[in-house]
Design brief:
This is Cytochrome b561 domain-containing protein. The chain is an all-alpha fold. It is about 65% helix and about 0% strand. The chain starts with a helix and ends in an 11-residue tail after the last helix. The structure holds protoporphyrin IX containing FE (HEM).
């Protein structure tokens, strides 16, 4: 079917008295990458790119060493995770094929993001062990530990719900659990922004990294607006 025929057939099944299509919701034939810049997603993109740029500029203007992989890998993890959320957020069960494809890519991107975060965790743990540093003393270290654990559990839960639904008592029950995965996903992401903001207050950053707090706070506000306004309350089980 050509694009124009497809558009025409969509127009004919859309009676005039029906409300206009919800432009924040992706339709079956829309290219998936539209979701990355659909409506409020633009705020979230601005936010995550400001955050990544602030971290990378700070790191590349300081002395590069094994430790510097920690912030770099963590910011890449958050960048990938943001794309994963944005890709899936505007999909709905009224466009099931679109939703299924988006869910597959969401899993892959979040898998890569979590791998990047876990690698960032390995770097800092190795780095601390190599000079007998004390673990989990600062606010950043404590919040960061919680973020790593939550990201790991989040990815595990998502993968099991999709690929091993029998563990939850069948596909219908596994799908009924998605709302918890969504809610904990947003909370985990929010906490990861707190971890990055707290990273700017560490001794290393104050002396060497010099990543400013204000672009991270600005990024946090833009991400909260972009991701927050894209949330559909019914998908969280709120009617
Ligand atoms: C999602 C993002 C991040 C997470 C989850 C995270 C997590 C962690 C964790 C768990 C530790 C403690 C390791 C230990 O005590 O054994 C740590 C240490 C550290 N991180 Fe991050 N981090 C993140 C981003 C960043 C960024 C962007 C920077 C930028 C400078 C950074 C700088 C540091 C520094 C300097 C330490 C050592 C100081 C300390 O232990 O408080 N981190 N991080």
């Amino acid at each position: 079917m050509t694009t124009s025929t497809r558009n025409r057939s969509r127009e004919t099944v859309q009676p005039e008295h029906e409300p206009l299509l919800d432009r924040t919701e992706s339709q079956e034939h829309d290219p998936l990458y539209y979701n990355l810049a659909r409506g409020p997603a633009l705020f979230a993109q601005a936010g995550i790119w400001i955050l990544a740029t602030a971290v990378w500029t700070g790191i590349f203007s300081s002395k590069l060493m094994l430790f510097t992989l920690h912030p770099l890998l963590n910011s890449i993890g958050l960048l990938l995770s943001t794309q994963a959320i944005l890709l899936l957020q505007p999909t709905s069960f009224s466009a099931p094929r679109q939703k299924k494809r988006a869910a597959g890519i969401h899993g892959v991107l979040n898998g890569l993001g979590t791998t990047s975060l876990v690698s960032g965790a390995s770097v800092i743990i190795y780095n601390k062990a190599s000079h007998n540093g004390t673990h989990f003393e600062s606010l950043h270290a404590r919040v960061g530990l919680a973020v790593y654990l939550l990201f790991f559990l989040q990815a595990l839960f998502g993968a099991l719900a999709v690929y091993a639904p029998s563990l939850f008592g069948g596909e219908a029950r596994a799908k009924a659990m998605y709302k918890y995965h969504r809610l904990s996903g947003y909370l985990t992401f929010l906490l990861s922004l707190v971890a990055v903001a707290a990273a700017t207050q560490t001794d290393w950053n104050k002396n060497m990294g010099k990543i400013n707090l204000w672009p991270i706070l600005l990024a946090g506000v833009l991400l909260a607006v972009g991701l927050g306004t894209g949330i559909k309350p019914n998908k969280l089980g709120i009617q």
